Amino acid sequence: MFGDPVTNDKGLPLTALKDCCVINPRKSGDKKLTDGLEVSFVPMTAVSEKGAIDLSETRLYEEVKTGFTYFAENDVLFAKITPCMENGKGCIAEGLCNGVGFGSTEFHVLRPVDGVTNPYWIYQLSAFERFRKEAAANMTGSAGQRRVPASYLEEYNVGLPPLSLQTRFSDFVRQADKLKFEFQRTLDEFEAAYKAILCEKLG
After folding, report:
1. In terms of CATH architecture, what is 14-160?
2. What is the 3 state secondary structure string of 28-74?
3. What is the pLDDT of residue 181?
4. How far is CA 173 from CA 40, 92, 121, 169, 178, in A?
5. Domains of the chain: which residue ranges?
6. pTM score > 0.85 for this model?
7. Mean pLDDT over all residues of the chain?
8. Pick from 66, 62, 119: which is nearest to 95 by CA?
9. What is the pLDDT of residue 178?
10. pLDDT tens column, 107-127
11. How many helices (H) and strands (E) are present in the chain, helices listed first?
12. CA dihedral sign of residues 145, 22, 124, 76
């Protein structure tokens, strides 16, 4: 739908990523953040290389308001440290407790801009193999502690598709995810039934 986002073979208008999304938004603008608020807590291990996020852990805001990365519903998490970045760790933060999350300081947060981008397009861009390879080439720091600097993301130029096309893409992804979930549930039910029958015959 968008062509190659790196080579921009569709000839879309080149736009700096900082104009497509807010890089590492500040928590000071979130008026919900008060002591006693329960929020999702997302360590690096809770995010997969395939875009999944484990939201089983929650903490109180006062426990995480310093020393952790802030994000909110529909923000995109991008692992900035090696080897997590090269391995593709990242996700869309959906289903957060009270719409707020805190997590590893090794995440960059990319927040969609209303009327300009949606999280599915941003995540797909950040997960694109060539995007990650270029990011790896621009890492800074010593061996084993190399990270993608925020400045690299801010100045990265990308062909920006119209929001209507991004929305069509997100609708397609949501439907595909729904079908995948239904298929996996059916498969799990089949396996459970098969095991029950096998146990009955052997028992």
Report:
1. Alpha-Beta Complex (3.90)
2. HHCCCCCCCCEEEEECHHHECCCCCECCCCEEEHHHHCCCCEEEECC
3. 60
4. 24, 12, 10, 6, 9
5. 14-160, 162-203
6. no
7. 90
8. 119
9. 64
10. 999 999 999 999 999 999 999
11. 7, 10
12. positive
